[in-house]
Prior knowledge:
By secondary structure, the protein is mostly helical.
Amino acid sequence: MLWANAGSNCSLCRQRLAQITSNGRAAVIGEAAHIIAESLDGPRGQSILDISERNSYFNLILLCPTCHKLVDKDTASYPPEKLHMLKAQHEMRQSGQRLVESIEVAQAIDHGNDRDVINFANNWAGFVPFYAKLFSQIQLTQMKGDDIDDALIMQAQEWHDRRDRLKELLFIAGEENTHIHRIASWERHKRNHEYIELGQYLTPFSFILDFLNPFHMIANYSDELWGAFNISHEFMDYLRFKYPELKKPLRSD
Length: 253
């Protein structure tokens, strides 16, 4: 039931967890992770749930090994209520249903005044140096095969905080209002990368901000992401043409 409802994908990073290897064999890398730990001394283990409840479907979330390690190491950022919410959202998305909360918010907010676009763009400009540094550090760690240290875990939490804020600001501004001129390099980039094209991302902003797990996104989509990140500078250039009051972003290329 857990695998079926999750669509055999990680509930956080959406990585496919059941794959076919080159020799035709099935490879399963997913893990049924406990939201409340099976034992009292485990992650989020302090609970009145008995052992049968701890091992039930309602207390399990399907994750890839990387996300499983992340949520268990950083329990403060992933309390039970957040994991239950992420699980529910993922399963609803897999079943093709739209989130009622998203519908209600979309109906309540009037998109698109200039102030909101400027606010998003200024926050994105502040995000640029952080993203470039985080990307390089994670990529170097993965290339060397090192373990994820506490400093990177803390930066991953900052990624979540910044990402959540930027997604909110982009939604309020209206993504269509940040795409004020056709960018040929973005159109080519989308055609060259199936993941981006299938996702129908209007701008590099929404593509980059769509990922929950920075370690997974860089391990699997580094070329797509770095290209999109650099193309986002062109989007910012046109926004500055329209809004001269925008701060000049720091480039990393």
